[in-house]
Amino acid sequence: MRHVGEGGPAYLLVARNEASQRRAAAALIRPAEVAPAAARLSLWGASWPAGDLVAWWLGGLRYIDDPPMLDVWRAPRATISLGGGDCEDLSIAALSLLIALGGSGALVVGTYFSHNGPIGHAWMEGWDGAGWLHLDATNRSLTRWMRPPEYVPMVAYSAR
């Protein structure tokens, strides 16, 4: 794992193993980086559950592939500055925002079984005022009370 950035890493180059991913999640899930957005969303959508606010907020970000042969995980501020990121980046930003809004959760890495076959994927799962939620940050798909069967988790990394 290697990092670049001031203060804390803006991004980490992550090996495809659980220890490296766990360290990256611990270093990059940063509710403080999205606290201003959480404050604005809390005022604007005071009656919405936090998970719904996070799914709506993700509409301002787009999916951006990592460079070939690299697994880059970005901090929320770096993802926002770039205007998006891949599944890990968007899920880290979304989880950071959920926590900043008073919820809790974990970054989940596993397999997504699409119509094209299985692919490695990341998403977030957590709790807010309305209960348990599953959020695929790449398409803003929010599901409550159950994980859709096409998502098969391998590991989950909590903020701390």
Question: Which characteristics define this entry?
Answer:
31% helix; three-stranded antiparallel beta sheet; C8orf32 fold; 160 residues; disordered N terminus; five-stranded antiparallel beta sheet; alpha+beta; globular
What's the helix and strand layout?
Elements: E1 2-4, E2 11-13, H1 18-28, H2 35-44, H3 50-57, E3 62-63, E4 72-74, H4 76-82, E5 84-85, H5 87-100, E6 104-114, E7 117-128, E8 131-136, E9 141-144, E10 151-158
Helix pairs in contact: 3-5, 4-5
Give an account of the 3D structure.
The chain is of the alpha+beta class and 160 residues long. The protein has one domain: C8orf32 fold, CATH 3.10.620.30. It is built from five helices and ten strands; from the N terminus they run ββαααββαβαβββββ. The protein has helices at residues 18-28, 35-44, 50-57, 76-82, 87-100, and strands at 2-4, 11-13, 62-63, 72-74, 84-85, 104-114, 117-128, 131-136, 141-144, 151-158. The strands form three sheets. A five-stranded antiparallel beta sheet has the order 9-8-7-6-10, covered by helices on one side. A three-stranded antiparallel beta sheet has the order 1-2-4. Strands 3-5 form a two-stranded parallel ribbon. A hairpin with a 2-residue loop joins strand 6 and strand 7 (117-128). The longest helix has 14 residues, at 87-100. The protein is globular and about 40 Å long. The two termini are 19 Å apart. Mean pLDDT is 92; it is low at 1-6.
